Amino acid sequence: MNQLKFSLEESEIPEKWYNILPLLSLEPPLNPKSLDPAEKEDLLKIFAKPCVEQEMSQESWIDIPEKVRKIYRHWRPTPLFRARDLEDMIGTPAKIYYKYEGVSPPGSHKPNTAVAQAYYNKKEGMERVTTETGAGQWGSALSYGANQFDLPSTVYMVRISYRQKPDRRPMMEAWNGEVIPSPSKKTEAGKDRFNEDSENPGSLGIAIAEAIEDAAKHENVHYTIGSVLNHVLLHQTVIGLETKKQFKKAGDEPDIMIGCAGGGSSFAGFSLPFIGDVIEGEKNTNFRVVEPTACPSLTSGRYRYDFGDSAQETPLIKMYTLGHDFVPPPIHSGGLRYHGMAPIISKLVEEEVMEPVAVSQMEMFEAALEFSDVEGIIPAPEPGHAIQQTIKEAKRCRETGEEKTIAFLLCGHGHFDMEAYREYYSDELEHIEYPEDEIEKSMDKLPDVE
Amino acid sequence: MNQLKFSLEESEIPEKWYNILPLLSLEPPLNPKSLDPAEKEDLLKIFAKPCVEQEMSQESWIDIPEKVRKIYRHWRPTPLFRARDLEDMIGTPAKIYYKYEGVSPPGSHKPNTAVAQAYYNKKEGMERVTTETGAGQWGSALSYGANQFDLPSTVYMVRISYRQKPDRRPMMEAWNGEVIPSPSKKTEAGKDRFNEDSENPGSLGIAIAEAIEDAAKHENVHYTIGSVLNHVLLHQTVIGLETKKQFKKAGDEPDIMIGCAGGGSSFAGFSLPFIGDVIEGEKNTNFRVVEPTACPSLTSGRYRYDFGDSAQETPLIKMYTLGHDFVPPPIHSGGLRYHGMAPIISKLVEEEVMEPVAVSQMEMFEAALEFSDVEGIIPAPEPGHAIQQTIKEAKRCRETGEEKTIAFLLCGHGHFDMEAYREYYSDELEHIEYPEDEIEKSMDKLPDVE
């Protein structure tokens, strides 16, 4: 019988993360006031020391602490599936594989870094960690990770999501996370807005500002971040390292790797261990990074220094950006609604190692349902973007007769996104136009730093 | 490092189901009018022939069709975990293992039989299958299973659940299931109630009657059932057969096996392959079957002939029952709100092979959260009952110093039950009393057949 699932033993969970920084020349983050390279000390105020060191490390391999690996074992190694039914449905000579991160307790790849960040902060004597969350994936992962080390967590959740995704709050509370609808009266960043209108819907920008302020003004409290930064992408490389071992077991290797990107950490985790081989000239794998047409930083943004947040308080980072002021239309892929992109992914796109593609919400839902129809798993809308591109590539192979091996990352399940599917079926979803005017306007406000 | 997860290869998915019927002397179902043993022909009107044959088969092993095994591979073999963190939290010398069925696309053990029933019906030329669903677990599984064979499915969903669990409907629709709130105007069984009040909240009894009528009155349409009957329990034995192989790999074997029971199919699937060894005198494993105090058929019911449904249309079956008229209080474990119990489980309890235990909703939630706190996975409320009993046994071992090996079945995740957890945290859940008066009243209406 033709194998569908390529599993690994617990002992095959990677012992080191893969760091691609030594192979890239990334521009340093800049202090937003002086425009000089940001000081390590600034970062140490809000992040754990090992995270700051990893952020700029030139070591190719970084040990995964034994206590982090121990917790990874609750759901890792994650399975690599061969999507034979999808191949049959398309009628393609291509082989399609997918790595599935939805088996983690919070349901996505996010705990790969949440557990690591929680561990380092606990070890440093922190008494609490903070973060922000939009749709709730990252907040859930952080609560889960922190709770594994008996570390209290505070999650500022964008108020409109807090109302629209009521199931995420009890999930975070099950893991002893404190969930605060943002803007709140707990911080300077939220107070005025809250007092003006206690039902203010909030934004990711405000929630980030609240979480950072909460960390900065308390001595033993640190902030944690779910994507974009180098150390977060590093922690995610367990995904790609496992995938490599699984392809070896399958006696195959990918020609094309596909993933969605909001901040970019899941696709980086999946692809970086393979990209190392490409940069070192050992392979010529292709990489497609897929974003929503509603928030197209890579396909419509500029490669420039910009703020990581709308409050203009983070260091300036060199990345593809739509401008820190850009507010994406309300698509259901909350995890892809970010104005910028991880510096590592940005650099790889700039150097044409990765090819960016944009997919509309409607195309995405159609593809996600074609997938669940045959493969069973109902994907989150975010990886639906990767599925759409995968089906497209497989159809191209059907035309050309190429027997390519395609691998995509299914970074999470859609159990908390069923309302989005209901809207799609009920024809309540409208086509969301490419937000051309908004992008132009926010591009005008890019900081004047080349 | 101490292993946490015991995985099996795809090739280790069982090739046969285990049938315990040859080891038990079950009383036959009776025709509700004549009180003679029910005719095979009556069952063939609504069920596929292989299912009816399995219902009374005296073969110990029954081949799993290759096409069913092929679909099992989408999520099977499921993992067996060692709950070391739970052991540490309790401080027990006992070893705790759990078999986790929540990795299936619908999120529970239910597709083990849904896929099989769909396959047999497709092969028999059926053009559609019907069923009822309460909270939605079974309806989701049936839609998923039927869709794998391109077989349309119609699910009559109790209207109050249809409203309270809005996320289940789009899930079933993703698998091309037709979801009809019950009572509906589509059937004689539902029409009058619907016409009287189109917002009638419905009941499982009405929904069963609608699904059976829909099947009976259309030539190429069959009914499918999610629990209670022998063939359903048979299909679930893949769970226990895998568990046996996994214990062999772990170099251990269970002293006590624990599971929750509504109709009884999940715990039967988990335990029957081990119970065979006990009946044949090879082992002396203990079995605890856990039910809610709100619906205590095994601990407070009688072992008698009764109807399977409140409409009194099914054959009479010999089982532990609270009376077919009994309407359990609205606990959050929808899957455990059934007035009767599978004849196989009932017999094993009557013969004292299994020991029944009842757990209250409050105790259950407390235990479920102790579990997710350390192990991560948030359980559905139904297996929360098994967790409560497991923790109790492990604490007993702490007192006595016994190094027992305890295995429980985690039959599904709680991703669609987060509202129940929210109510628990918010102190909105009240203690639900043992429904003594209602039980007495419905017991009075038991049919007069010994």
From TrEMBL, chains A, B:
Gene Ontology molecular functions: L-serine hydro-lyase (adding indole, L-tryptophan-forming) activity; pyridoxal phosphate binding; tryptophan synthase activity
Catalysed reaction equations from the record: (1S,2R)-1-C-(indol-3-yl)glycerol 3-phosphate + L-serine = D-glyceraldehyde 3-phosphate + L-tryptophan + H2O
Keyword Ribonucleoprotein set for record: no
Protein name stated in the entry: tryptophan synthase
EC number: 4.2.1.20
InterPro entries assigned: Trp_synth_b-like, Trp_synth_b_CS, Trp_synth_beta/beta-like, TrpB-like_PALP, TrpB-like_PALP_sf
Domain Tryptophan synthase beta chain-like PALP residue range list: 73-412
Annotated spans, Disordered: 178-200
Enzyme class: lyase
Sequence similarity: Belongs to the TrpB family.
Gene3D superfamilies linked to this entry: 3.40.50.1100
Cited PROSITE patterns: TRP_SYNTHASE_BETA
Pathway entry: Amino-acid biosynthesis; L-tryptophan biosynthesis; L-tryptophan from chorismate: step 5/5
Keywords for this protein: Amino-acid biosynthesis, Aromatic amino acid biosynthesis, Lyase, Pyridoxal phosphate, Tryptophan biosynthesis
GO terms under cellular component: cytoplasm
